[in-house]
Every structure is written in C-alpha cells, then in structure tokens.
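Researcher: First entry.
Model:
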Amino acid sequence: PGLFIRSLIVLFVSVSCVSVKAQTVIRTDNNYGAGFTQYIWNTFTGAGDVTNSYEFVPAGYNADDPSVKYPVIFFFPGVGDVKTSDPNSVLKLGLRAIAIELEGGNFGAGNFNFIVIGMQGSAGSPAAEYAAFMENYAFVKFRDKIDFSRVYLTGLSMGGGRIMEYMENSTRAAKIAAIAPVATGTGCPYI
C-alpha cells in the first residue's frame, strides 16, 4: 500500500507540474503609452488542431465575481502566425493591436472592457477546429464571465476566411453578435 500511495503522489505532482508549465504569462511593456498588458499563453489546450492560444483580460478583471460579465473577441490568425511555438507570433498582428486600443482608452476609458482570445491552429485547420476550441475550452473556462450576447470574431487573411467559413454553419453563427474579417483569404464562393 505504501508504494501505491507514493506512486499516486508522484503521478499527481507530475500532472500538476505539466499543467503549470502549460500556461505562461507574457508581459509586454511597449504598448505605445497604453501601459502594460498581460497575456496568458496556453499550449496544448486540446481542441483538435487548435493547440495554442492567448488570453487577455481587462484591468480589474476578477474571475471570482460572476456578477460582472464581459464581451469576448476571438482572433483567428493569418497563415504566417499559425502552429508556431513562438508565443510572440500571434501578438505581432491583430491580437496585440486590439488589446492596445482597448487599454489605451481609445474607445473611451472604461467603456469597453473585453476578454480577448487569440487562437492558433495550422494552415489547414478548418473553422470547425476553432469552433471546438471556443466551445470546449474558452466558453468553459470563462463561462461565468462572458456576456454570451456579445461574442465577436475577427481574423486576418486566412483567419478572416475561417470566420466566413465558421459563419456558414447557422448553429454556430447564431451564437455570434458580429464579425470583422480582415483581408480574407478563403475559397468560399459567396465572398
């Protein structure tokens, strides 16, 4: 029995260590006068091919207060920033700019506080993989904090194309308040 219990303790500690290493806080200090931003970099979040993601929460965010709900923006990256182990890749375009604008008060200080999530799949990730990430990870983790009437999608190039493909499914589209695809790269015939 003693060996069995020691084995369980070793297994628990090993699993705990893996979980801790799966999240890294990236702090950027050069936000063009907007102060600093903390992004949580997640690896292997387990939503099919979408295995890396960033999370940004606004100043004053309190995960333990379910009375305050936030709108959420999901960012789908372009092909140049997918499936990389570089945590700064998704911050180069799009995601970091969104957070800087929000933190900088450019929309009216305190009026627009969003949870912002950037996702990474591969160049071949279908929109269904991004949907799986949202449903199986982001919506579960932030369930008590999201204003589900204000879920927004934006993406660049290939990511913009994935948004158009995402919205082709009426069940998924019914959950989205608005989309802002940018320079869409897609083969969708209805563009």
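Researcher: Second entry.
Model:
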Amino acid sequence: IWPNRAEEAVESANDLDMQAWLDGVVDERVAAGRPVVLALALGRGGGYSSIAAAQRASDGRILLEHLDTKAQSLWVPPALKKFKADLQAASIVLDQRNAEPILPDLAKAGVRYLAMSMSEVAAAFDLMIEHVNAEAVVHPDQAEVTIALQNAVPRVMSKTGNLRTWEQGDPTEPVTTVQAMT
C-alpha cells in the first residue's frame, strides 16, 4: 500500500545525503563533562524503543550517538535513568504523544523530561536533514544507525503544515533509532 501523497512530495520528502552521513564518522563518543541531551523514541505499538544522545563534539559540530534499542518499552525508564546519571545529561526530550504509554513508568522512576510538540518533532526532522547535508553532524560508526537511515521513509504528520517525521520503511528495521537521534 503506497502512501497517499502527491508525487512531488514523495520525491523531495527525504533529502538526507547518505554520503554526508557516512563522511561524518568520527572516533569521538558522547561523554560526561560537556552538556548532553538524551532523547527517547517509542515505536508505534511499542514494537521498539530507542535512546540516543547528543552534545557538541570537540570541533563544535553536533555529535549524535545511538545508545540503545530494544524490543518493547519496559526497559526504557531504568535505562534512561542510568544514562542520565552516567552521562550527567542536562535534559531528556521525547515525543509525548508517542511515548504516552510509558509516561507513568517514567514518573515512577523519577525521570523528568521535556515534551516535544508535533511541530518540534517535524522541525527536528528538517533540521537533521539540513545539518547532516551541511556536514555539521558527526557520529561514531554505528552500522545499525546507517541501516535504519537507509530504511527510514518520511511520513507526513500534517499536510497543511508540511510536517514530516521518520517512518519505518522496512518492518524488520526499527526506525526509532533514527527518530531518537533526530
């Protein structure tokens, strides 16, 4: 079943330059000592959940790192709490609408977060593409992220606002990895 979108929207919806992504591989990893932000993405229906981190790299570019992806979501609150402590993360961001099923568990674990609106999720999608293409994003070599990016397809959240985000293109490859990093 093909998405119900205008042909020109499909052609221009995802302009991420995979070569720019591959050229952004560095040996640096996200670490405590500089401001860190964690992000959570919960897949539709709770299939997969992912946690990622971002901070400024030593050269000033944006350093992204996939921290963990697993099936389901019960593992997320304690893992987020541990990553926050270990990395001394300044904040945790998430798409509240998609993470709704685990918000009570996050509260029980004492995990505070910043909720992103639909517009902010869409802005993150557009900025991710722009920054990767401008070679302003670096990351460790993580094959699972490259595979997820190759399989992720854009999904229109609002046609009137042209709000887009990542969607799972291959049912065997979690898109939450890319969503969290975005």
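Model: Note on the second entry: The longest strand covers residues 62-71.
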